[in-house]
């Protein structure tokens, strides 16, 4: 089933329901939303886009994002949402790897794509005669989600129509109820979890609200929650912390916030307890990853509100099997630490044109998440560590290898190792240990060098000059020693 059927059904059954909003301004009802998406699909076909072709979205959050996303699916094409904060060189690599036929971009994102050979157009430039929905099979590719791994290059996670359906139905079964009276706010990037959650809200005929700021402004978020009264949002833990701090400082209580689903990084117990003190029982935690999007586990509103199992990420969501396994993939007993493994319709069929990485990640139908943890007798999962060294800063994944490779191209850098350091503001922040060639460290020069090559949020927040990096007998850098040094200092 083409996942865009859900939008078509809403247009047919309740087309006058309000759908798209920019701030408090109404943009379209469901009939208008569907009509605009169908016209966008017709424009894609007129440009030569066919079923299975990849169309990238490199845009800040805006109502046109949802129009384009569903228009891509109506045309039977594959959406390639790209983080709007990435550097142009990073985006160009993704467009080339995906063999994108078109990139939809606006504003500053257009300027960042000056070097790409991929055709670029704004949403307004892609319009044509309304196109009937193109049928797709459940196993057909719908979303190509680019994540990164230990190789330093992004990998394209293949997300099918069936996976999106499974994820959305699991949300209703395991996370939260949704009705047409609800409004969902897109403050987090739509290229990630916030955009994935648009589907269940289309299915249920809810309202879709884009903040005029296009991002995370605590005052704006709380004002919109008060205006719409039944507001849902997906937030990284750092966003929850910012909302809490703002509300405390300005005597706000979060009136109108119905549900805040948080995930995408570690939530410290003290932070969620502080948020509960301010906002009350509105919080739900989820754990997932691109390879099994948004739906591995959930910690229910009732558990969070009762401050029960707050150090865990909850229990398995509906529609998946969850296991903690040993090195051979065999299930471990409760309390034993091993690799978190997932199986079911939620799991990707593999990485885009990367059979080696797929074989390393999927074993006998089980997804090896690369995360370690343990289950208890009640089925609650506790994350122990991230085996892939990913740094999660402000809800955004930063992969040390990408930063290291950028720094190593600077003439003054002999060696470098990048690790994460705990941060009250960002959850984690990037720190680079550098062995300078001439013994001196020019931080402004390294900053400028990084900004020319990688996204700003990946740039190190601190540089530490060292004479040598700690290494084991095999010559591999021992990053645990670097983290211990940061913890001691």
Which descriptors would you attach to this protein?
Rossmann fold; single chain; 9-stranded mixed beta sheet; GMP Synthetase, Chain A, domain 3; 489 residues; alpha/beta; globular; 25 strands
State mean pLDDT (0 to 100 scale): 93
According to CATH, the fold-level topology of the largest domain is Rossmann fold
Indicate the CATH architecture of the largest domain: 3-Layer(aba) Sandwich
Gross morphology: globular
CATH homologous superfamily grouping of the largest domain: ANL, N-terminal domain
CATH class categorisation of the largest domain: Alpha Beta
Count of distinct strands = 25
Supply Rg.
22 Å
Can you give me a brief rundown of this structure?
By secondary structure, this protein is α/β, with parallel strands linked by helices.
Topology:
Elements: H1 5-14, E1 18-22, E2 25-29, H2 30-46, E3 54-58, H3 63-74, E4 78-81, H4 88-98, E5 102-105, H5 108-112, E6 120-121, E7 141-148, E8 154-160, H6 161-174, E9 183-185, H7 193-196, H8 198-203, E10 207-210, H9 218-228, E11 231-235, H10 237-249, E12 257-262, H11 269-279, E13 283-289, E14 292-299, H12 301-305, E15 315-316, E16 320-325, E17 338-344, H13 355-361, E18 362-363, E19 366-375, E20 381-386, E21 391-393, E22 396-398, H14 400-408, E23 413-423, E24 427-436, H15 443-451, E25 462-465, H16 479-488
Helix pairs in contact: 1-2, 2-3, 9-10, 10-11
Structure write-up:
- The strands form six sheets. A nine-stranded mixed sheet has the order 2-1-10-9-11-12-13-14-15, with helices on both faces.
- It folds into two domains: 5-375, ANL, N-terminal domain (Rossmann fold), CATH 3.40.50.12780; 391-488, GMP Synthetase, Chain A, domain 3, CATH 3.30.300.30.
- 31% of the residues lie in helices and 28% in strands.
- It is built from 16 helices and 25 strands.
- With 489 residues, the chain is of the alpha/beta class.
- The radius of gyration is 22 Å and the shape is globular.
- Helix 9 (218-228) packs across helix 10 (237-249).
């Amino acid at each position: 089933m083409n996942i865009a059927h859900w939008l078509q059904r809403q247009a047919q059954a309740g087309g006058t329901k309000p759908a798209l909003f920019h701030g408090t301004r109404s943009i379209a009802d469901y009939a208008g939303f569907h009509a605009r998406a169908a016209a966008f699909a017709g424009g894609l076909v007129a440009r030569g886009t066919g079923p299975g072709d990849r169309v990238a979205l490199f845009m800040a959050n805006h109502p046109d994002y949802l129009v384009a996303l569903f228009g891509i699916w109506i045309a039977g094409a594959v959406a390639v949402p790209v983080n709007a904060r990435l550097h142009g060189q990073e985006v160009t690599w993704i467009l080339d790897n995906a063999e994108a036929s078109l990139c939809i971009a606006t504003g500053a994102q257009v300027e960042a794509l000056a070097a790409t050979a991929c055709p670029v157009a704004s949403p307004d430039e892609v319009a044509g005669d309304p196109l009937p929905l193109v049928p797709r099979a459940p196993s057909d590719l719908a979303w190509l989600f680019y994540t990164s791994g230990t190789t330093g290059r992004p990998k394209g996670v293949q997300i099918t129509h069936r996976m999106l359906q499974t994820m959305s139905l699991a949300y209703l079964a395991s996370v939260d109820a949704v009705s047409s009276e609800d409004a969902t706010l897109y403050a987090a990037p739509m290229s990630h979890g916030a955009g994935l959650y648009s589907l269940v809200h289309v299915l249920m005929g809810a309202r879709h609200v884009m903040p005029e700021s296009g991002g995370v402004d605590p005052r704006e978020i709380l004002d919109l929650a008060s205006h719409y009264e039944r507001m849902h949002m997906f937030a990284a833990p750092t966003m929850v912390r910012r909302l809490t701090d703002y509300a405390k400082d300005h005597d706000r209580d979060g009136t109108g916030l119905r549900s805040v689903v948080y995930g995408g990084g570690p939530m410290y117990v003290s932070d969620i307890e502080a948020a509960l003190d301010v906002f009350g029982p509105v919080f739900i935690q989820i754990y997932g990853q691109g390879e099994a999007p948004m739906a591995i586990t959930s910690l229910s509103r009732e558990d969070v509100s009762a401050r029960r199992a707050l150090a865990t990420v909850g229990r398995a969501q509906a529609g998946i099997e969850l296991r903690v396994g040993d090195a051979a993939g065999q299930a471990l007993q409760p309390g034993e630490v091993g690799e978190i493994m997932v199986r079911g319709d939620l799991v990707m069929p593999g990485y885009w044109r990367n059979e080696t990485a797929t074989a390393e990640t999927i074993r006998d139908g089980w997804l090896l998440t690369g995360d370690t943890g343990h289950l208890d007798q009640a089925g609650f999962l506790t994350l122990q560590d991230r085996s892939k060294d990913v740094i999660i800063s402000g809800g955004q994944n930063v992969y040390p290898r990408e930063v290291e490779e950028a720094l190593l191209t600077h003439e003054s850098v002999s060696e470098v190792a990048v690790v994460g350091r705990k941060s009250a503001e960002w959850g984690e922040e990037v720190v680079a240990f550098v062995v300078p060639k001439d013994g001196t460290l020019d931080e402004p020069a390294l900053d400028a060098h990084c900004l020319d090559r990688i996204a700003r949020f990946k740039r190190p927040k601190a540089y530490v000059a060292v004479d040598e990096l700690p290494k084991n007998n095999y010559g591999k850098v021992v990053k645990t020693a670097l983290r211990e040094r940061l913890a001691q200092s």
